[in-house]
Fold this protein.
Amino acid sequence: MPNYAEYIEKTTARNSKVIVSFIFIAILCGLGYGAYSLVSSGLNSISNSFSPNSTRSIPEVSGHVGEQVNDGQMTFVLNSAPVCFNSTSATKLCKFDVSIGNHSKTSASFFDSAQKLVDANGNLYDVASPYERSDYSVSFVMSDLNPGMGIRGNLFFEIPKGVSPTKLIFHDSMFSGGVAVGL
């Protein structure tokens, strides 16, 4: 003779596990969809602003050699005029002596790869690969700066020989609008 109380207890326990599992899966799916929506909308706007067919806005000059300029959490100073010398038969390497400081109340990271050089035609150049030079500092490539802290180092840009740089654009991150220093 079946024990109905025991049967009901087992069925209820099994149903409870199924319901809890279903709720858990529903929550995970909701979180996953929310994360996907957030990331995909952000990536679409970011990728559109960096696509080859889009035109990034180049900021107007806000300062010159020796003057302090600000972008986001960072303060930048181009300490001297750039020094350019032949790199290959077709290119030259330009060195920029730069000081960076964090003027905010929280830590911030400086990335040399976020900085851009502009020529007279509006072409944007990325920082050159690290060179084995006595005036190159590996710690300058990426630096975490606490509030009130600063760092000084050199940025290198490799450009065609016939090109003259006109602006150096400093960014406190790759997503900032940047601030331009006239050369």
Q: What stands out?
A: Helices lie at 4-49. The CA atoms of residues 12 and 18 lie 10 Å apart. The first strand starts at residue 61 and ends at 64.
